[in-house]
Structures are given as C-alpha cells and as structure tokens.
UniProtKB/TrEMBL annotation:
Subcellular localization: Cell membrane
Disordered: annotated span: 1-37
Keywords: Cell membrane, Membrane, Transmembrane, Transmembrane helix, Transport
Stretches assigned to the Major facilitator superfamily (MFS) profile domain: 46-494
Protein name, entry field: MFS transporter
Feature: compositional bias, Low complexity: 9-19
PROSITE patterns, per the entry: MFS
Species in which this protein is naturally found: Nocardioides eburneiflavus
Gene Ontology CC, one term: plasma membrane
Length: 504
C-alpha cells in the first residue's frame, strides 16, 4: 500500500521486530525478536479512535447477556433460542474478518475503518427498533459484518501508526479492551436495561459512534492507494469461510433444542465441513488468496490466534452461563447481574497489569499458559455451585480467579501475535488474529451452552444449576488443553524492554 503521508497512517512499516521485510512475492519473513526500534512519537488520537471503535465492537458481544431474559420476554423468544442474539453477531463478525483484513490491505485503511464504523452505528440503531426475534437477529448479523470491517482496519491502523514502546503500549491496551470490554458489557447492559429499556443497549452506540466518526475523519491521515480489481478480493474464498463458520456455529447452537445427533445438526455440521474444506482448497489455488498460505508459517501469529480463540471462547461462554445462572437461580435483576460482574472486570484489569510487567521478565508462552491454568482452576471452582449457591461464597471467588487468569492471557497474545508482520500484510494478519477472537466468542457460547444444556434446561432453577456445573467442567478441560498448546507453540523469547506506558 502506498501512502501520500508517511505520518500517522503509515508511521511504522516495520515496527514490530528487527526489520521484517516482505520478499518479492509479498511473503513476510518471520522476525527474530519481539522488539522494534522506537520511531518518531505519534499522537495518541489515532489509538483513542481505534480503541473507541473496538470498545463498541467488544461491548456488543456481551452487552445483550444481561438483557437476554428481558428481550426474550419482550419478543417472545424461548430459552433455547436466546443464544442466537449473541451468536448471530459473533459468527458473522468472525466469518467476515479475513475479508475485512484483506480489504484493509488493498484499500485505504482509513476508508475501510470509517465505512465499518458508519455501518456499525447504523445497524446498532436499527437493532433497537427491532419488533421481532427475526428482525433483531438480522440486525445483529449486520452489526457483526460491520465489525468485520471495523476491527482489522482499527488494529492495522495501530500497528502501522506506532512503533517501539508506543506500539507495545497500544497493543497491550488493545488486549485489555478485548477482555475487559466483554465483562464491562454485562454491567452496561444490566444498568441500561434496568434504568431505561432494552433497546437503549443498542441505541447508546449511536452517539459514541458519531463522535468517533467525527474525530476519526479529522485525525486519521488520508492515503492514496491503487484501485484493486474484483479478483484481488477472493470473494469465493470469503463466501466459503463465512458460510462454513456460520454453518458450524448454527449446528452447535441448535444442539440445545434439537440434540447432537439429529438430522438437523448432522447436516449443518456436514455443510460446514464441506465449505471449510472448499475454503482451504480455494486459498491454495487462488491467484490472490484471501489469506496468503505463507502466513501460516508465522508461528507467533498462528499460535497467538489459536490461544486467542480459546481464551475468548472461555471468557464469553463463562459470561453467558453466569448471566443466566445469577438471574435464573439467584433471582438477580439485570442491574444486579451487571454489578455482580464488576469484581470480575476489576480482576481482568489486575491480570492485564500483572501480565504487562511479567512480559519483560518471562517468556510470553509462560505468561499465557499460567493465565490459562488459573482460568481452568477457576472454572473447576465455579462448577461446584449448585441450586442452593450464594453469590459471595460460591460465585465470587471463582469469578475473581477467572478474571485474573483471563487478563493474564490477552496481553501476551496481543503483544506477540503481530510481531514480524510487515505493513503490507498488517490488515490480513489483524483479520486473522481477530477472527480467532470472534470465532472463539461464537464457539465459546455455542459449545458451552450445548454441553451445559445436556445437563438441564437453562430456563429452570434446577436445570440452570446443573447446566452451569457441567458447562464449567467443560470449560476447565478446554482451558487445560489450550494452556498446553500455548506452552508448546507460543514464542519462547522474552519481550526485550518493558511495555511502555501511555504519556499524555
């Protein structure tokens, strides 16, 4: 991508590591370290706008959780179908992120970012006016597709604007937003639902999006790019991966109401497998693949994305199950549920702070593996809660430990995954990483909800308690598997130098 300004939009073309370069075929060589030289300091306004947009995207993964019973009652949605209000959003976002990342590399990052932000804001407002389950699920799907444009372009703007310590600080903050935003969304959803009505959990995005748009148009530098051809976008590959991920999430989500071995589930699984195999085949043969095959050789990115998928799935799935539990079993209101998640959010913040300091002394894979181990232990603790559980004695300790563990994982993943990615591939790499985030969120809710539902109905007190226990037992097993993978595959070398602090 050629820029007219070598300033804000393209400040750090090789900022990630010791001068990674693209070869003549556009293939980035993996870097040998995780540290880059400090370039000229850049204003934090681009980061602020990118984080504001990402906060909207991440909040909307979880903001509906505390409002689910209220929305279900208002729109007459039964308990088994409530999860679609969450998964419709994340499965479309996750499926579209690779295309969004490709667009960010081929087109103006600024243009893709502002377009995504505009569509997201509009879809949020439409969601609040939905009068039926179908309308709301459709609007949520459009929100997800908008987020698929927004997220990789925002992360790409960060990685190409900042270098050195500024870049590490920006990526650490990005990681913190990814984890803390999910927990904060539960509180926001509960407060807004209680004090106003459920449509406002979507309408609140309107003014925030408009302000971010106004600031973004003034602060993000314009770029001049060559107009790409339609064949450069690999639309067949995009259609196959979106369809495959949607079919997979749909199949998992339907198990709660139709069973694991129903014809409905088996057919959806088969369709997903066919489409995902078609995607991989298309990528090998395409002249301009949606996701260049050589990027699979970048271990830091691939391993970081896999761990991102696992930890986000655990986080969002845990928030979903706990939101249902405290409202169904403990009888909490939406606002009380949101407040109940506050300690969880604070624990995530503490985990990110500890991880940032540890990264200067310990290998990223060790920090991530320890965080996942802590998360798994917390899941085991939460799985012991029964129908007679109390918040302070039975839920709070597990939520505090889980929040701390989750916070520890997001920072090393965010800081190391983009190491060694040249500017020309920043968008597709960002899209790959955030695909892990969004697909993890979709699969986390779908898998844990499906496993939990085998023990009992989420709509009754005894059923929800049994389901909660089985869901968190599954979460503990998943955390252990992902921890072992992180220790095996994530980068072994330490981040040289402390992660910088934000200076105003």
């Amino acid at each position: 991508m050629s820029d007219t300004h070598h300033g804000a939009a393209h400040a750090a073309p090789h900022a990630a590591t010791h001068a990674p370069h693209a070869d003549p075929h556009g293939s980035p060589h993996p870097a040998t370290g995780l540290e880059g030289a400090d370039g000229p300091r850049r204003p934090w306004t681009v980061l602020a706008v990118a984080l504001a947009a990402q906060i909207l995207v991440v909040l909307d993964i979880s903001v509906v959780n505390t409002a689910l019973p209220t929305i279900g009652h208002a729109l007459d949605i039964d308990g088994g179908n409530l999860q679609w209000l969450v998964t419709a959003y994340v499965m479309m976002s996750g499926g579209g992120l690779l295309l969004g990342g490709r667009l960010s590399d081929l087109l103006s990052r600024r243009g893709v970012f502002l377009t995504g932000l505009t569509l997201f804001t509009a879809a949020s407002i439409v969601s609040g006016f939905a009068g039926s389950a179908g309308q709301l699920i459709a609007a949520r799907a459009v929100q997800g597709l908008s987020a698929a444009l927004l997220t990789p372009s925002a992360l790409s703007l960060i990685t190409t604007t900042y270098s050195g310590a500024q870049r590490r600080t920006a990526l650490a903050l990005w990681g913190a937003v990814g984890s803390l935003g999910v927990a904060a969304g539960v509180l926001l959803g509960g407060a807004v639902t209680t004090w106003t009505s459920w449509p406002f959990i979507f309408w609140i995005n309107g003014p925030v999006g408009v302000v971010a748009l106004l600031v973004g148009t003034r602060t993000i530098a314009k770029e001049q790019v060559a107009r790409p051809k339609l064949t450069d976008l690999d639309l067949p590959g995009a259609g196959a991966v979106i369809g495959g991920l949607v079919a997979l999430t749909y199949a998992l989500g339907a198990t709660a109401t139709r069973g694991w071995w129903s014809a409905h589930t088996v057919v959806a699984m088969a369709v997903s497998a066919v489409l995902l195999v078609a995607f991989l085949t298309t990528e090998r043969r395409a002249a301009r693949p949606l996701f260049p095959p050589h990027v699979w050789k970048l271990n830091a990115l691939v391993s970081g994305t896999a761990v991102m998928l696992g930890i986000t799935g655990l986080l969002v799935g845990a928030v979903f199950l706990t939101s249902i539990f405290v409202q169904t079993v403990l009888g909490y209101t939406a606002l009380q549920t949101g407040v109940a998640f506050l300690p969880f959010a604070f624990a995530i913040t503490a985990g990110t702070i500890v991880a940032r300091h540890l990264l200067g002394h310990v290998a990223p894979r060790v920090v991530a593996a320890v965080g996942l181990g802590v998360t798994g232990a917390a899941a085991g603790l939460l799985s012991t809660a029964g129908a007679d559980a109390g918040y302070a004695a039975d839920l709070l300790p597990g939520l505090l430990v889980m929040g701390f563990g989750v916070g520890m994982v997001f920072v090393p993943v965010s800081v190391t995954s983009m190491a060694g990615i040249p500017s020309s591939h920043a968008g597709v790499a960002s899209g790959f990483l955030m695909t892990g985030h969004e697909v993890g969120a979709a699969l986390g809710v779908a898998v844990l909800s499906a496993v939990a539902s085998t023990a009992g109905s989420l709509a009754t007190i005894d059923g929800a308690a049994d389901a909660f226990s089985r869901g968190f037992t599954c979460a503990g097993v998943i955390a252990a598997v992902v921890a072992a993978y992180a220790l095996w595959r994530m980068p072994a070398q330490r981040v040289s130098g402390a992660i910088g602090h934000v200076h105003h």
